[in-house]
């Protein structure tokens, strides 16, 4: 049976890692020429929309990397 505190700590830890990722890892920033090329390539209306999509993809990518690293460490350090 799982500890009731564990069911609360796991989502809190995941949320904390997400906040740390957003604060510590820099998101990509484009020059104005590259941003305009990307906007025309992907048919995006303004720069805010471009950066919203870029930040979403960036943090999704970083979250996936963190997940696999933590999963690897958990399996390595916590044998069943």
TrEMBL record:
It comes from the Bacteria. The chain crosses the membrane at residues 55-74. Keywords: Membrane, Transmembrane, Transmembrane helix. Pfam families: DUF1158 (PF06643). InterPro entries: DUF1158 (IPR010590). The keyword Membrane applies. This is DUF1158 family protein.
């Amino acid at each position: 049976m799982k500890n009731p505190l564990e069911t609360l700590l796991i989502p809190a830890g995941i949320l904390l890692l997400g906040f740390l990722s957003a604060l510590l890892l820099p998101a990509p920033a484009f020059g104005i020429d590259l941003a305009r090329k990307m906007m025309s390539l992907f048919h995006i209306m303004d720069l805010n929309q471009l950066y919203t999509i870029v930040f979403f993809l960036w943090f999704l990518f970083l979250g996936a990397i963190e997940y696999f690293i933590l999963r690897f460490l958990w399996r390595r350090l916590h044998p069943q």
